[in-house]
Amino acid sequence: MHKKYLFIFLFLFELFFVSNIMAQKKEQINILNSDLLLGGKDIGEGVRRFIGNVAFEHNNATMYCDSAYLYGKQNIIHAFSNVHVTRGDTLHLYGDFMVYNGNTDIGKFRNNVRLENKTTTLYTDSLDFNNATSIAHYFEGGKIINEDNTLISIIGYYYANSDMFFFKDSVVATTPDYTIYTDTLKYYTEEKITYFLGPTNIYNEENHLYAENGWYKTEEKKFQFNENARYQNKEKILIGDSLYYDELNGIGIAIDNIEMIDTAENMILKGNYAYYTKEPESFLITDSTLLIQVANKTDSLFMHADSITSNYDTSGTYRILKAFHQVQIFRDDFQARCDSMVYNFQDSVITMYKEPILWSKGSQMTSKKVEIHIKNEKIDFFKLITTAFIISEADTTAKYNQIRGKEMYGYIRDNNLSKVDVFGNGQTIYYTVDEKENEIVGVNFAESSDIIIHMKDGQPSRINMVKQPAGTLYPLDELEQTKLKDFQWLEHLRPVTKEEIFIWKK
Length: 506
Prior knowledge:
The protein is mainly beta. It has one helix at about 1-25; strands spanning about 30-35, 35-40, 45-60, 60-70, 75-85, 90-100, 105-115, 120-130, 135-140, 140-145, 150-155, 155-160, 165-175, 180-190, 195, 200-205, 210, 215, 220-230, 235-245, 250-260, 265-275, 280-285, 290-295, 300-305, 305-310, 320-330, 335-345, 350-355, 355-360, 365, 370-375, 380-395, 400-415, 415-435, 440-455, 460-465, 470-475. It has 1 helix and 38 strands.
């Protein structure tokens, strides 16, 4: 029984050993042609020399050269001058010298090396090619030319089966439109798609793009940038987690942590989604939007809305910015809110629609529509159009100075409301103060078609009745109706910090 088991063991061992040896056996290099064959002691034991029109074949690759040494036992060939390796019609390798090992399927090309496929040519002085895996590798610098596109790098790999180049270290790619600097890059020659796998800078005469991950389709001229993506031209900067741009169609999309900086308009826009069109130039930004109109550290304007759009007028000479839904504005000298808003850059006018409210220091202004006119980056004057109302607190005991009319113009000087012109159905209620005692001593009710009201410290200081005036000064407790029609004190809705513009109070 023991002999029987020993026999079976030895048989299995021999079968495994022999089959393993057979599996490891490598295909020998096959000589196809040579004008002259030399051998013997002068050449070397086991060595043959081939001269003239040398051709040999190994593992589906055909190799040509002017002369070669074949080391039979090692299954290695040294090829000299006009070395050419081809695999069908898809891949050609050229060089001055090659060492090819038939056991490892690796050819080492040196001096004036050139690799060609259907669309791309690689130039280098040192290249290793694995005939079994169809992978070429250069490591001392190379240059790739693909039609109008050129690329150089220190290290590179070519994967013939997928027509893909992989570049590493000091990569510079030049296209008719851009120059690309990066550390790591993939390029698919058939699809003409470039993938960036490290810090990347892309330049042309007008633009600079930066990202740490993304792709570029050279024929379609489409970009996708991720990870610290940044676009910049002479007047604008765009930052986002993800930036996409279709150059031929002039369409751009930015997603997450977006920041658009317009240096010409001193404007910054933030949000989490933006859509841009080049012709005509316009953009939409939404999701946590924030507009900052930069004046200085203390006077910058902050605005939030559900969405903000921007485009140019029909002549293309000035920008029009629109904000939609739950618009709120904060600046140190005034605050505002409304449902929608238009900012015309031609005349620096902000127009507010649907229940607009404007606060300036201690005054609250409301109407059906509000126009805010900006001059030298400050409010110059405002218009309250239809059912205009201005209210300010006379004291902290629910006493309110009030101005009502069809339409009003309010003028701002030194960040304070200095004068109000009332046009049509003017009415006022204001409390008179004994300046010596600093106490309220009476309340004045006045009506006039038009009224001019001079303000001091947010309170009426002098009133001029222009047409059909009528007015009465009452003791404090004798005026029965202390609120004009449509009176609403809305201080609880006021955004008192720039952070509060993201909170829609009710």
